[in-house]
Amino acid sequence: MTARALDRFRSSFDGEVVVPGDPDYDGARRVWSALFDRHPALVARPKTVAGVAAAIRFARESDVPLAVRAGGHSVTGFSTCDGGLVIDLSSMRGVTVDPEARLARASGGALLAELDRAAQPRGLVCPVGVVGHTGVAGLALGGGVGRLQRRFGLTLDNLAAVELVTADGRLVRATERDEPDLFSAMRGAGPNFGVVTALEFRLHAFGPNLARGFRVYRPGEALVMWQAFRDIARTAPRELGLSFVVGRAVPEADYPAEIAGGPIVVVAFSYAGTEAAALAAVAPLGRAADPVMETSGEKSYLEIQGTYDEAYGWGQRYYTCGGFADDLQLSTIAALVDHAVTAPGDGSFTASLQGGAIRDVPDEATAYAGRRAAFRTLAEAGWQDPGEDAAAFDWCRRAMAIAGPEGLVGRYVNEVFEDGTDPATIYGPDILRHLVRVKQAWDPDNVFRMNHNIRP
Questions:
Q1: I need a labelling partner for 385 at 20 to 30 A (CA). Which of 169, 194, 203, 451 fits?
Q2: CA angle in degrees (0–180, nearest 5) for 154-74-34
Q3: What's residue 3's pLDDT?
Q4: What gap in Å lies between CA 366 and CA 239, rounded to an integer?
Q5: Sheet-wide strand order for 240-248
Q6: Could you tell me the sign of the dihedral formed by the alpha carbons of 253, 256, 262, 265, in that order?
Q7: What is the pLDDT of residue 215?
Q8: Segment holding 117, helix H or strand E
C-alpha cells in the first residue's frame, strides 16, 4: 500500500479514511472484544455502495487483507486485521419499516437496537440477538439466536433479501428467486461472499410485552432439575424459550450465603405471551425442587432487549465455544457442576432449547447446521484482566470437552472462537460442499477470507 496509491484513494473515496497517526486512529481500530488489539493500515468508512466497491478494489490492488466491520462484535476478531484494510460500515446505518408489507430494510452497518426500535412501535418484530449494539449483518449472516427464535425462527430464517458488493465490485441482490444458491450460502456463511450493504427482513406481529424469569437451584439439585427441564422441553410450546445454565453464584453479594461463590444451576425462561402463561408452561419445575431464588414478570420487549447492553459492553475480554446436542446424560451434568467450581468470573455452560420454528426450515435452505438438534450448547466467559486469559480459555474448552461426546455434527458459526477451525466441523460435509461451489463462483480469489473461511 504505497503513499501515492493511498493519496489517490483518499481523493476519490466518498467517505472517511483513517490511518495510523490520525487523531482518531485508536478509536477507529477498536472492536468490541479487548482480546483483539490489532493495527490495520487503513480504516475506510464508506457512505455509499460505490464507496464499498472502491474500498474492495483498493484492498485488492494493494494486495492486503480485507476485514469488514458492521457492529464489531465478532468473537474471533474478524472485524479487524493487522496491516490490512478495514471497511467500517458505521456510516451506513439506519432501518426503515414498511408496516403494510411487514418488511424491514436495514443498512449494512445497522445495529440490533435500531431494528428493534424501528419495528416495535408498529407492533412488529424480527427475532434477533440479545445485545443491542451488535451489528445486524454479522448476527444474521451467521444465524441469529435470541429470545424469540422458537416462535419466529432464526434471524437468518427471516431474511427476505441481501444486497452485497462482491469481490469484482458488483452490487448483487440475492433472494430465494434471484441468485438462490448465493442466498442460501449467505444465510449462515455470508461473510465469505461479499460486503453486505443492506438486508431485508420479514417481520411478525408481536409486543409490546415479553414474559421472562429464572429459578436458581443448589448444585445438589442439578440432576433432578435437568430431568424436569428435559420433560418440559419435549412438549414446550413455541412461545417458550428455555435455558439450563451451570455456573457460579457471583458476584457473591447478589446471592444468599448458602450458595454464594459456589456452583449453581439456573433455569431461565422467556415467553412470547403473558406471565401467567409462562408460569403455567414451566410449572413442572416447581414440582421437582424448590429454588433458592426466583423471579418472573412482564416487561416491554424493548426494555428487555436492552438488559444486557451494559453487561456485554465494549472493552471486555470474551471467549466462547459452542455446539449442538440432542441430550446430555446425568453424568455429564454432574461433571459440569463439578467443573463449575473453578469457573472464571461469570463463566458458565448453557443448554438452550431449540425446536419450534427453528425446525420449520429445510436443512438445504440455509447454511445453518444443527437446526434439528434439541439443544444448542455453549461454554462462555467474560473477564477484564489479561492475566486470566489462559484460565478462561481452558475452562471453556474443558467444559465443552465434558459435553463433547454427546455433541452432534455442526456448530453455530457466530460462537466458534478459534480462527482456522475446520469448516466441516461447523457446517457438516453436505452444506460445506455447497458452500465451496458458491465460493468458487463468487469469490474464486478468496478476497473475503477474514472469517471462518470457505476456501474455493
A1: 451
A2: 140
A3: 87
A4: 23
A5: 293-300, 209-217, 263-271, 240-248, 348-353, 375-383, 317-325
A6: negative
A7: 98
A8: helix 112-119
* Orientation angle between helical segments 423-442 and 180-189, nearest 10 degrees: 140
DSSP labels, 384-398: S-GGGHHHHHHHHHH
Distance CA(412)–CA(352), nearest Å, equals 12
Closest to 138 in 3D by CA, of 52, 212, 68, 228: 68
Supply 392's cell numbers. Answer: 478462561
Q: At what angle do helices 222-235 and 330-340 cross, to 10 degrees?
A: 130
Q: Are 150 and 357 in contact (CB under 8 A)?
A: yes
Quote the pLDDT of residue 165: 98
Element (H, E) at 422: none
Beta bridge partners of 381: 319
**DSSP string covering 254-284:** GS-TTTTTSEEEEEEEEESS-HHHHHHHTHH
pLDDT of residue 2: 83
| The pLDDT of residue 105 | 98
Q: Could you tell me the three cell numbers for 449?
A: 477470507
In the numeric block, the cell 424480527 is attached to 126
- Classify 317 as helix, strand or coil: strand
pLDDT at 345 (0 to 100): 87
Cβ atoms within 10 Å of 346's Cβ, excluding its own:
14
Note the pLDDT of residue 447.
98
Q: Closest Cα to residue 192, out of 434, 371, 4?
A: 434
In this prediction the pTM is 0.96
Do 167 and 420 meet the contact criterion of CB atoms below 8 Å apart?
no
User: Reduced to 3 states, what is the DSSP secondary structure of residue 97?
Assistant: strand
Q: How many CB atoms lie within 10 A of CB 272?
A: 25
Q: Over the chain (456 residues), what is each successive 10-residue block's mean pLDDT?
A: 89 94 96 97 97 97 96 96 97 98 98 98 98 98 97 98 98 98 98 98 97 98 98 97 98 96 98 97 96 97 96 95 96 98 95 98 95 97 96 97 94 95 96 98 98 97
Q: Which residue has the cell 441430550?
A: 327
- Cβ count within 10 A of residue 64: 16
**Nine-digit cell at 126?**
424480527
Beta partners for 407? 325
Polymer length in residues for the chain: 456
Measured distance CA(330)–CA(335) in Å, rounded: 9
DSSP 70: S
Count the Cβ atoms, other than its own, within 10 Å of residue 181.
Answer: 14
Half-sphere exposure of 248 (CA within 13 A, CB side): 19
In angstroms, rounded to a whole number, what is the distance separating the alpha carbons of residues 445 and 439?
9
Q: Is 24 exposed, middle or buried (0-12, 13-18, 19+ CB in 10 A)?
A: exposed
